[in-house]
């Protein structure tokens, strides 16, 4: 991630109004794990983490979201734009909250650079 990361790859977002997001590097495969909430308060941390994923992207990057309680349309847009900018391969999203799948289907129905692996 960057110099502010913890030794284990965790990037905590600041808490404000109860919103928090924690992002860690995945062990054993390229990508990240996000837990908490992605919204206007935490979106910049989410965007920074996805930029790092894109900068180290090979053929497949993984985004594990089983610990994510919610994601807003802006957070989904950041994911979609990141995937659209990849020159090769795809992002596999594991266990996203239901609203992410609905948002992607609604606004980016033909985006082949994102594969959603359901629960």
From TrEMBL:
SUPFAM superfamilies: SpoIIaa-like
Signal peptide: none
Organism domain of life: Bacteria
Residue intervals of the MlaB-like STAS domain: 32-106
InterPro entries: MlaB-like_STAS, STAS_dom_sf
Family matches, as Gene3D superfamilies: STAS domain
Record protein name field: STAS domain-containing protein
